[in-house]
Fold this protein.
Amino acid sequence: MDTPDLTEASVAALVAAGVAAFEAAATTAELKAARIAHLGDKAPLILANRAIGSLPGPERKDAGQRVGAARAELNKVCEERHQLLADAELHERLLAERVDVTEPDSYFPTVGEPHPITALMDELADVFVAMGWEIAEGPELEAEWMNFDALNMGPNHPARATSDTLFIDPIENHLVLRTHTSPVQIRAMLSCDYTGRRRELPIYVVCPGTTFRADEFDATHVPAFHQLEGLVVDKGITLGHLKGTLDHLAAVMFGEGVRTRIRPSYFPFTEPSAELDLECFVCHGASVGNPDAPCRTCNSEGWIEWGGCGVVNPRVLAAGGVDTEIYSGFAFGMGVERTLMFRNGAADMRDMVEGDIRFSQALVGGAR
Ligand code: PHE
């Protein structure tokens, strides 16, 4: 091994170089690198120290003391520098992470907003208010007569069977939870103003409301659901007016160009009656007669049922006290949950009643 150069001058030079490097370090990371260079295993001072043993006796002692003192000096400078840099870095970090407890709270808790069904009912009603129609209302706990008899559904009509209708106090007061919003048609025709005078004709009303049936609780049925009812009573009303009105509603709800059709059907309170269908918004009819590309949304029928409608049965007008020689009308009723499913792609009706805020939030920002 070479004789190590451990003269006073060269040891002092090593110390000076180390001190300069430590002082130049601007961060603890830089200091660490400088420490390795000047005090690490391969630093000149440390290598020299290891070679002290090869020196002759008297020199060895001196050199040992010099190197020991040099290492102690460098360690001290390095330690002090480290303390300084670490303090500065901590300070920096604390400033960055500082929490000002006097700062006003920037988190405003959501106070809530209408449920998507409520919002949609308002939207549906707005379409008609914009055309000058009125909003009509009726009770959810309804007289059987309003819900059935006046709508040309006699005592033996199957819709009165307990399997569908939730009867409340059927013996004494003949009350039901309304199974549809159609009793509001009767209430609108029979309604009076505050002087007791019968409402004047014509009638243009819509009624968004809650309806009840003793139904399954599954992806497409909930026992408490919502409908939008519409009723017009005027002179010379035809199916054409009905179709035009519903087309307008469909265009507002689903966009211009959505295709609708009315398909012959039966309701006791309309004659003729029809189902209102929307062109399937998923396959647009491409799945019809095409077994290779079936459509689950419309069962490969190309159309999906939106609601019922028709020309008001004269018996219903008569029950509402309307002169059927002069007046005729149209009516329609559609499911609000179905509308939300079609329009926003909500696949499961149960989500609509479970009260999970994420559902509402998803629809608010969702597929409109
Ligand atoms: N009331 C009917 C139902 O609940 C819908 C409907 C309303 C049909 C008005 C025709 C006219 O299914």
Observations:
- The chain has two domains: 8-96, 116-366.
